[in-house]
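FAQ: What does the model actually see?

It sees only this:
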Amino acid sequence: MRPAHLVPAGVVLLALGVVAAVAQLTGPAAPGPGQASMTPQQVAVTSAARACPPVPGGGPGKVAFIAGSPAASPSGGFGQAELAPLPLAGAALRALSPITAAAPGALSMLTTPAAQSAGKQATTGWSVTASGAMAQALEAEEATSAGLASIRCGEPGSEIWFAGAGPQGGAAQVQLDLMNIDALPASVDVDVITDAGPVQAGGDTGITVPPHETVTESLSSLAAGSSVVAIEVRTSIGRVAADVSESSRGGTPSWLPSTAPPSTQLVIPGVPPSGSTAGLYIVVPGSANAQVSVLAITAQGHYHPFGTQTVDLPADSASYVPLTPLGGTAALELTANVPVTAAVLVPGSGLGAFTAATAPISEQAVVAGNTAGSGLSATIVLSAPAGPARVRLTAMAATSGATSSQVVTVPAGHTLTAPLTLPRGARHGSAFALVITPLAGSGPLYAARVETQGQDTVVSIIPAISALTTITLPPVRDSYDAISP
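And it is asked to produce this:
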């Protein structure tokens, strides 16, 4: 039994006296006749943060970065945005200066230098922070030298999920990067579930991630012998951003996008056709078996890849389910009797490209790192599982600032694929950003950007995540705080 903590009577009386005094000064006024109840408020985003993982193999990197709105009032100030290094914990690295981005509403391709340790290259993550108007619609992605996004820089959180291949599924190396952008240390537990069930993580509990530093953990030994691996990153103190990369032996790493938390209904956007079978990874983290129905949302409408049968999966497991051809590019809608989470691997360069379950787009989404030319082509995949959606697509070039815009309509229960091109006047081969804006009255919209090389080799999928300019604050009511021992 937890021991009771006694508070001296004088302290309680003093506290009650303070509460009474505050109640006299700020107590609720009686509502007048016909007075409306308080409603939620829309306020502008004034602070935002992301974290980019270390570049595989060390060396310099690129960050595709866009934040703020060019329509923001200069008189009020734009605020500021910068990239700052998050060196590996305990590494004695030469100091790196923050990189400042000062062009609101424009795409910047920022070069992150290689960290140096005793004359050698080392690795470091990068924090991305913005304040004031520059925090609005913030998006950052780690990109190739050509500007093609490979992984979205994630938000810090206290619970983050991933699902992908295990060593027997082709991922010889599985690496987890944990980044702490805050001024206080974070304590992290890592839970691993495979097709054989939960793994006793041992040393991967209570991992301390120091302030403004990065901790890298290899999970290859924990996942040894498995075809599928699911990873849950949880913090008991503080928060972290997390990323997982997988690679075949000696191959180019593929990034796993974080997937939506377990739910009884999920949508995975942007599943393109490929030359070989794509794979669906489903994670059942609870103690009850799952029955999962899978519905493909295609250009022709709904399609049941497994017929009328459900996919039956055991509790506390992560499973691989091969996908039959979906008849073109599609989104997958999963409905289950218990909470699950899921991702899809589409064969392509390296292990292939992953897409994962996401939330519908609220307000707008931004994919910062896109390229076209030199054999690469970019498409946006838009899916409307419920009502129809009207969507504005705006492309913004990095070097010239040129823009182009189009409005498309996605019928209810369908997927629409639209090619992406550089705005007129932009230099051939330059990077460009894409802003996805559902228009008023649209139903739920899910999206992903797909890049292919040649006819059908998928090189990158970026699921679209909301990039907010405003947030909703719930109504605040007068209340008393109770004091208990």
